[in-house]
């Protein structure tokens, strides 16, 4: 998901991913970085000597991805898998990624979420909802980080549209 120029969303917003991880609620920090990037890259206000001027679309795309926990997790995972695109980010995170099908995960009807235990010991380390699946619908896979450690789970699935008014049915990909 890194751009062809190998500029990350974090570089566009001038944010350190570790700083975001340290925040209990990074919403305000991300929003402030978004507004700062818009101002710094405005054609009428940007310094003439500035090397790269990012478009409003690039800044907005970066903000949308970084501000959504599910999209950010997927984006971070893609950066880890492309060390040549951003070697600084890739060396900070050396984690394992396990591939599973959605049908192999347990579903908790009371909490309306899928879950799986992690090898770190958390019985529900990997947890996500249908909304998370819908956000990553185009990719057909969702990256889910463990709540207690640095391990990741790549959940493969497909969304099938139904003819009636029922919600989409999630099934594993063939």
Automatic annotation (TrEMBL):
GO terms for molecular function: metal ion binding. GO terms for biological process: protein histidyl modification to diphthamide. Pathway: Protein modification; peptidyl-diphthamide biosynthesis. The keyword Coiled coil does not apply. Keywords: Cytoplasm, Iron, Metal-binding, Nucleus, Zinc. Required for the first step of diphthamide biosynthesis, the transfer of 3-amino-3-carboxypropyl from S-adenosyl-L-methionine to a histidine residue. Diphthamide is a post-translational modification of histidine which occurs in elongation factor 2. This is Diphthamide biosynthesis protein 4. The lineage of its organism: Eukaryota, Fungi, Dikarya, Ascomycota, Pezizomycotina.
